[in-house]
Amino acid sequence: MMLCRRRTTAFLARLAVICTLASQLPAMAQDSWPTKPVKLIVPSGIGSGTDLVARVFAESLSSLFKQPFVVEAKPGANGMIGSREVAKAPADGYTLLFSYAAAQVVNQSLYPNAGYDGAKDFAAVAQIGSGGNFLVVSADFPAKNVQEFLAEMRRRPAESGSYGSWGIGSAGHLSMEIVLQSTGLKMQHVPYKSAAESNVEIMGGRLQAGFSAPAAALSLIKAGKLRALAVSGPNREPSLPDVPTLTEQGVNFQIATWYCLVAPAGTPRAIVERLNAAVNRAMQSPEYAKRWESLGLANMQPRTADQFAETIRTDVATWAEVIRKGNIKAE
User: Band of the pLDDT at 12, cuts 50, 70, 90?
Assistant: First the structure.
């Protein structure tokens, strides 16, 4: 009888150890993540502002985690193609989405069948920057500021002007819509897959204007190929401090734009926290300071994953109201 009790006690002790180890396996797996390459989906075209910024972060994350972070551009449908792919991906930290504000917080209000909810179908990881986009024209366009631009366009035949963006419902589209709604100006919208394509058309004079992300426009502006008339958002862009905001020039515009890193909903919190810390570290690293400045991302402020999740929820509601007021519909 005593022997049976000892065997039972020993068995229970071994079982307790096994159960303890089993309970630690998920945490151990997350601590060792990543053990293979990580796919970083960008829902816009190669050469777009999002793509350019994503590639710098991919370089930084690859170096920090000792595994390749491979950027894959999946453009189309205003970011919905790439976003849907990540929303449906396994929540294991090996498929991430490097996106932009419009794709993350606008599409569900603009498209009846967007296929994802930017707040509910993703785990917020990190917000990257908080600023605006440049309102740009060609270098030889006869306007040096917003009021001169409005006057010039009003001198032309009604609705003869056109502007470009990187898709219906993109920040470039909605930013110009706010300008048009505020001023009564009429212009035709011409959507492209990326801001880079729109910029080419503006430089060539085939479009009169457009909004462009700093990452895609800054080098062209500094080279004198594009002229920045204004910047959207609440503050001037540190990389071009002489360019006033739209609000300063009489067109009220306070909504900020940003880039972001998100993961499929349900991604383990430990992985989210490690990625958040790594992204914030890269944003503050002196090693990348000049590159961030060249991409229009100077003075980025680190934020927690929870803070960014709240920003997503707030911006979803804000842009939904803009779309409702403008009666903007996807084609």
Answer: low
- DSSP class of residue 245 equals B
Tokens of residue 186, six digits: 């009429």
- Tokens 């068995």, located at residue: 11
Contact 104, 118 (CB under 8 A): yes
Phi, psi of 173 (to 5 degrees): -65, -55
196 Cβ neighbours under 8 A, 6+ residues apart: 45, 47, 48, 216
Q: Check if CATH label 1.10.340.30 holds for domain 134-249.
A: no
pLDDT value of residue 298: 73
Q: Which CATH architecture has domain 38-130+257-326?
A: 3-Layer(aba) Sandwich (3.40)
Q: Which amino acid is at 289?
A: A
pTM of the model: 0.73
Q: What is d(CA 130, CA 317) in angstroms, rounded to the nearest whole number?
A: 17
